[in-house]
Write a structure and sequence with these properties.
Helix 8 runs parallel beside helix 9, helix 13 runs antiparallel to helix 14 and helix 15 packs across helix 16. It is globular and about 75 Å long. The protein starts with 7 loop residues before the first helix and ends in a 5-residue tail after the last helix. Helices cover 55% and strands 7% of the residues. Strand 1 and strand 2 form a beta hairpin. It is α+β, with helices and mostly antiparallel strands. The longest helix is centred in the N-terminal third of the chain and has 23 residues. It has 3 domains: 55 residues; 186 residues, no CATH class; 49 residues. The protein is built from 18 helices and 8 strands.
């Protein structure tokens, strides 16, 4: 039996990176405590199993010191005014997957003669927030009256996602890593990010967050696309980020979803706060979280009132997220990987330009039957 010398520091690093408690590893690896004290060594098979459980490349476990892992895009997230710590394995893998998909789609678009999108990088921080919000609204066909006519704000969110996709933005909404339903993304670590690109701009929205928060995240990340700046963001309606870019994107997001001038004409200052938030959410077909943000913007709520109301509403909405986890794989593939992206991969593969094995990797499927059924769901006859 082959035993492997592995640094206890590396094992502790892998556990911390996984964001799983020690107890989860101790149940599977009874000798973990002895490994961490340097009193025993794992076998090669045990180490490989440990790497899979920690979602860490097994080669990293043979290093003498933990590697320096940095995010491959600017990190504008903060918690209580402080920068975030080490990125999790789930976050890193999600970004790497999106980069892989973006690289593939960029090549696909160029091969098919697609021109750069003129709106990517067309905005500046010095520009008027209402002006940029109006430009985004026009480009997407995001019509306020159409939003009002939507039966629910969740339906309005679905249409909002479609509009961004139709405009040329790769929009991916998922609450898990790849297709692994056991690896749920943590909204407290990140809500979304943007990979800016003139041909293949990509937005990822954390689907483990409430749908209410997802709408604001999408609007925030669209502002990043218009700026042409990649970022891992503080995309939350209640926050006042320290970064100038994040503040500007939050302002644009709020103005895009609920124009301040229109809000002021609709707002009834004498009405009960909760009732008015619910009414205006129905009027604008956005979440109550965005409405609360707009109430704060017009000084109908103090900072403390806003924070308290926002947290209470988040607690009310959270069970709806937990109840909606999962679903039909084929129905959600177009959301998780993005409808524009999935259609491109399927078409390229069926035309013989992309290998089936590469398509499986890009879409997160494991066999041809799954791929063909997914293609059928998207309207391709095979």
């Amino acid at each position: 039996m082959t035993y492997v010398a592995v640094s206890p520091e590396i094992l502790r690093w892998a556990i911390a990176r996984s964001r799983r408690p020690n107890s989860a590893f101790e149940r599977k690896f009874p000798k973990l405590s002895a490994w961490l004290r340097g009193e025993a060594k794992p076998t090669l098979k045990q180490l490989e199993s440990f790497a899979r459980s920690a979602h860490a490349p097994v080669g990293y476990l043979f290093l003498s010191q933990p590697p320096e892992e940095t995010l491959p895009l600017p990190d504008f997230r903060t918690v209580a005014g402080s920068e975030m710590g080490r990125p999790s394995a789930d976050l890193l893998e999600t970004i790497y997957t999106c980069q892989l998909r973006q690289d593939w789609y960029r090549d696909f678009a160029r091969a098919n003669g697609e021109a750069p999108l003129d709106f990517v990088g067309s905005a500046k921080l010095s520009a008027s927030v209402p002006e940029i919000a109006a430009r985004i609204r026009r480009r997407l066909g995001f019509n306020l009256e159409e939003q009002r006519q939507a039966p629910t704000w969740t339906e309005a969110l679905r249409r909002f996602l479609e509009q961004a996709d139709e405009a040329g933005v790769l929009v991916m909404v998922s609450g898990i890593v790849g297709s692994n339903t056991r690896r749920v993304l943590d909204p407290q670590e990140f809500r979304g990010f943007t990979l800016a690109d003139p041909i293949a701009p990509l937005i990822f929205v954390n689907g483990a967050d409430t749908k209410a928060a997802q709408m604001f995240t999408l609007a925030h990340e669209l502002a990043h696309v218009w700026l042409g700046r990649s970022a891992l963001s503080d995309a939350e309606a209640k926050s006042e980020p320290a970064h100038e870019v994040e503040r500007w994107c939050n302002q644009v997001a709020a103005e895009l979803l609920v124009p301040l001038e229109v809000f002021q004409s609709e707002f009834r200052s004498g009405a009960a706060r909760g009732d008015e938030a619910q009414r205006l959410a129905r009027v604008f077909k956005v979440s109550t979280l965005v409405i609360l943000r707009r109430m704060f913007d017009v000084r109908a709520l103090t900072r403390s009132q806003f924070q308290e109301a926002y947290e209470a509403e988040m607690q009310r909405l959270q069970p709806l997220v937990e109840a909606s986890q999962g679903g039909d794989f084929y129905a959600t593939l177009g959301v998780r990987a993005g409808r524009r992206f999935v259609r491109a991969v399927v078409a390229s593969t069926l035309e013989g330009h992309t290998l089936f094995r590469d398509a499986y990797r890009l879409l997160g499927v494991k066999k041809e039957s799954t791929f063909r059924k997914a293609a059928g769901k998207l309207g391709y006859e095979i």
